[in-house]
From TrEMBL:
The keyword Hydrolase applies. One of its GO terms (biological process) is proteolysis. Keywords: Hydrolase. InterPro entries: AB_hydrolase_fold, Peptidase_S9_cat. This is Dipeptidyl-peptidase V. The lineage of its organism: Eukaryota, Fungi, Dikarya, Basidiomycota, Agaricomycotina. Belongs to the peptidase S9C family. One of its GO terms (molecular function) is serine-type endopeptidase activity. It comes from Gymnopilus junonius. It holds the Pfam family Peptidase_S9.
Length: 463
């Protein structure tokens, strides 16, 4: 008998690690994970197993960290899994078995930086084999350990600082030495003139809780940041995790274009664009707190930009896609907000409805603080922009895929209806629905149309 919600519950169910003998073809259950692990398991020569798992294994909204488990030498029953490292100020996205002396390497995302950390046979941190600089970023990488003890790694490297789209680079290092990506192996995107790509640089400030925060600002080539009061758009990233299915969601100094990559796009057309790595980038602090600390991060970033003379406080817009679209919707519904224009791409506007309709209902309920079927106070309303649509004064553009399963179209429709009925003066948002598109767009014509509409809308009300 089928169950309509079974697919949505797959990520909630325990997972058995099973070992099968090649000779006898017999199998035995070796370990039961509370939730599906965040990576494949590395079975080391030492006999133990290394894997990525949530910092709080039973939680849906916890960051991926490094764990191990081992079978007892007396019998085949496993001991309890042991937490090893990471998760407090960083996030893990991948683990690679180096297949020599039980060594392995993990990818660490920490603010604007990415590191490849090698761990030794004793499950001790060995060394950082590679670390990005702040003027570029990497993703889609791999590493091998050669017979002569060389650590050889490859990665896609791009730079918003130098105007370079992604190409494959390689590097080599030795034990306890930090390597660099020194050899370019591919020549993709030769059509791109780096002299025409907008500039980018890191941006640092203190959050409302006095924690040091990092983000990225992009601006047109040739613009002197000493000029004051530039046209500014806040573009928050999606996620909120640093990585979703190995795709980076945090803001770095890499260069990527796409239907939802609006920072370099808008900067190409004359805007100073602020993007931030807000609290909760790795889910940990986002759980039960959406609309709280991360919104204060947006506000403090704007305040810092104004204090440095970069931002014209009377000409600021806000835009974003997915979780970034949620922050855009939140921004335009804040009491007495000063945003002159807003763009909401596949954004969450009602966390309760999202839990009821999304393809990952339990994750969304955890992030939003609850679900409609839970008894007690509806905490999900606290961070839902739809309850504050009366505060909207900015002209709005909403773009959404018709077949979006992650953030269903009803999020945009209900928000538009609310704004039309409650906002004073009367605001008529523009909603554009794209046929055949899910949460991530695939058709070139639709992707181009999104970018064109975003630019026209921002230009119309901000320039």
């Amino acid at each position: 008998m089928g169950h309509a919600d079974l697919e949505a519950q797959v990520g909630l169910l325990p997972v058995d690690e099973t070992i099968t003998s090649i000779s006898s073809e017999e199998s035995c259950s070796a370990f039961k994970y509370v939730r599906p692990p965040g990576s494949s398991t590395v079975w080391r020569e030492q006999g133990d197993f290394i894997f990525l798992q949530k910092f709080q294994p039973s939680e849906l909204s916890s960051v991926d960290t490094l764990w191990s488990w081992a079978q007892s030498s007396q019998n085949l029953s496993p001991v309890t899994a042991k937490y090893l490292a990471y998760g407090e100020i960083n996030d893990l996205s991948q683990i690679v078995d180096l297949q020599w002396k039980s060594q392995y390497v993990v990818e660490v995302a920490e603010n604007l930086i990415t590191k490849f950390d090698v761990w030794d046979e004793d499950n001790k941190f060995g060394f950082t084999a590679f670390q990005t600089e702040v003027d570029y970023s990497t993703h889609n990488w791999d590493m091998v350990l050669t017979d002569d003890g060389k650590y050889v790694f490859v990665a896609l490297k791009s730079s918003a600082v130098f105007g370079h789209l992604a190409n494959i680079w390689s590097g080599t290092t030795e034990f306890r030495a930090k390597g660099v990506l020194s050899k370019k192996l591919s020549s993709h995107n030769p059509w791109l003139n780096s002299k025409e790509v907008p500039q980018a640089k890191p941006f640092y400030w203190k959050g409302s809780d006095d924690v040091a925060l990092e983000g990225v600002i992009s601006y047109p080539k040739g613009v002197d940041l000493k000029n004051r009061n530039l046209l500014t758009v806040i573009v928050a990233h999606g996620g909120p995790a640093s990585y979703v299915a190995l795709v980076p969601r945090r803001d770095t100094l890499g260069l990527e274009f796409g239907h939802s990559r609006w920072r370099p796009f808008l900067a190409s057309y004359g805007y100073l664009v602020f993007s931030l790595n807000y609290h909760g980038d790795s889910f940990a602090m986002a759980a039960n707190g959406v609309g709280g600390i991360e919104w204060l991060d947006v506000e403090t970033m704007i305040e810092e930009g104004i204090s440095q003379g970069l931002v014209d406080p009377e000409r600021i817009g806000i835009a974003g896609y997915s979780q970034g679209g949620f922050l855009a919707a939140l921004g335009v519904t804040r009491p007495n907000n000063k945003f002159k224009v807003g763009v909401i791409g596949a954004g969450i506007t009602d966390w309760g409805m999202l839990a009821a309709t999304s393809d990952v209902p339990d994750i969304e309920a955890t992030l939003g603080g609850g679900a409609p079927w839970k008894s007690g106070e509806p905490l999900y309303l606290k961070g839902s922009p739809i309850k504050d649509v009366k505060n909207v004064t900015a002209p709005l553009l909403l773009v959404h895929g018709n077949n979006d399963a992650r953030v269903p179209l009803t999020q945009a429709i209900s928000f538009v209806r609310g704004v039309e009925r409650e906002a004073k003066p009367n605001i008529t948002p523009q909603l554009v629905v794209y046929p055949r598109e899910d949460h991530g767009f695939e058709e070139r014509g639709n992707c181009e149309d999104v970018l064109q509409r975003v630019l026209e809308h921002v230009d119309k009300y901000l320039k």
